[in-house]
UniProtKB/TrEMBL annotation:
It comes from Zoogloea oryzae. It is found in: Endomembrane system; Membrane. Belongs to the complex I subunit 4 family. Residues 26-229 form the NADH:quinone oxidoreductase/Mrp antiporter transmembrane domain. This is NADH:quinone oxidoreductase/Mrp antiporter transmembrane domain-containing protein. PANTHER family: NAD(P)H-QUINONE OXIDOREDUCTASE CHAIN 4, CHLOROPLASTIC, NADH-UBIQUINONE OXIDOREDUCTASE CHAIN 4. It comes from the Bacteria. The chain crosses the membrane at residues 20-39, 59-78, 90-109, 121-139, 151-169, 190-221, 233-257, 278-295. InterPro entries: NADH_Q_OxRdtase_chainM/4 (IPR010227), NADH_UbQ_OxRdtase (IPR003918), ND/Mrp_TM (IPR001750). Keywords: Membrane, Transmembrane, Transmembrane helix.
Length: 316
């Protein structure tokens, strides 16, 4: 309503985006939108609702939340904050990069300490969204394209991990990792799918997560806005997060599938993944591999809009 009444009244987005607003007014609007989208994305310290929600919700709800709803927060930051309020975004972007780097490391470390399997994946989502924050704050074509690709990539990967975590918990009737173990022997199909999506989440080359995070790395390194030393420090922090990611993901795989705890006790009750579960998993896995092999399939849809946003608002 503030934007509507600040000049000639209109709700047309293109008209509003082409207007110039006082910097102080942009900062006020930007801060309000940022708080709203920071809860949705989420951005630390406004992320605390997400792990509890994932930990208590059914895995179908977790799939919708991780695959679609969280990504709307990132879309809002790009579409509203970046395009509508460019001057304020330029002022806030260094702080966003700092918060994004802290989020990658903090959420990765916190994920490692979670006993609840769905909470561990939830903190993994929070960590991966840090790359999106850094990409959209890098003010470079490559970084923003990487942020958009990370939104799409993690939408597939996060939804698949919650789906497989839910199917695993349904079979074992357990949700805490330290009580699990050994189901890789009676459930080889589930083990294969879970391992494949975990590899995608830790940015294995050839999968969409690798391309997205690589573009974010290149975007911050080539950004014309920041000095060399801050860029090196941010890159170092992102690298630490990427090292921590396989630690908590591979640890999760070890606790669920390796060993003999559950296999020795009730392995005769376990049923491996059926046709419907395989169909869902493969349907999600194919675009992950497709984007990883040929990322231009997605980038070609966003590159023109990204260039328009950055050229018309940040470098004019």
């Amino acid at each position: 309503m503030g934007l509507y009444g600040s000049n000639e009244p209109t709700f047309n987005f293109e008209t509003s985006a082409n207007r110039s607003y006082p910097v102080a007014l942009e900062i006020i609007f930007y801060f309000g939108f940022l708080i709203a989208y920071a809860v949705k994305l989420p951005i630390i310290p406004l992320h605390t609702w997400l792990p509890d929600t994932h930990g208590e919700a059914h895995y179908s709800t977790c799939m919708l939340l991780a695959g679609i709803l969280l990504k709307m927060g990132a879309y809002g930051l790009i579409r509203i904050n970046m395009e509508l309020l460019p001057h304020a975004h330029s002022l806030f972007s260094p702080w966003l990069i700092l918060v994004g780097t802290m989020q990658i490391i903090y959420a990765a470390l916190t994920s490692l300490g979670q006993r609840n399997i769905k909470k561990r994946i939830a903190y993994s989502s929070v960590s991966h969204m840090g790359f999106t924050i850094i990409g959209l704050a890098s003010l470079s074509d490559t970084g923003l394209n990487g942020a958009i690709l990370q939104i799409i990539s993690h939408g597939f990967i996060g939804a698949a991990l919650f789906f497989l975590a839910g199917t695993s918990c349904d079979r074992m009737r357990l949700i805490y990792l330290d009580e699990m173990g050994g189901i890789g022997i009676p459930l080889p199909k589930l083990f294969t799918m879970f391992s494949s999506f975990s590899m995608a989440s830790l940015a294995l080359p050839g999968m969409s997560g690798f391309v997205a995070e690589l573009l974010v790395f290149l975007g911050i390194i080539t950004s014309p806005k920041y000095l060399l030393m801050p860029k090196l420090l941010i890159t170092f922090g992102m690298a630490i997060g990427m090292i921590l990611t396989p630690i908590y993901l591979l640890s999760m795989l070890r606790q669920i599938f390796y060993g003999y705890k559950q296999f020795d006790s009730i392995n005769s009750l376990f049923l491996d993944s059926g046709p419907r579960e395989l169909f869902v998993s493969i349907s999600i896995f194919l675009p992950i591999v497709g984007i990883g092999i040929y990322p231009d399939f997605v980038l070609s849809l966003s590159v023109d809009k990204v260039q328009a946003i950055l050229s018309n608002y940040f470098y004019r």
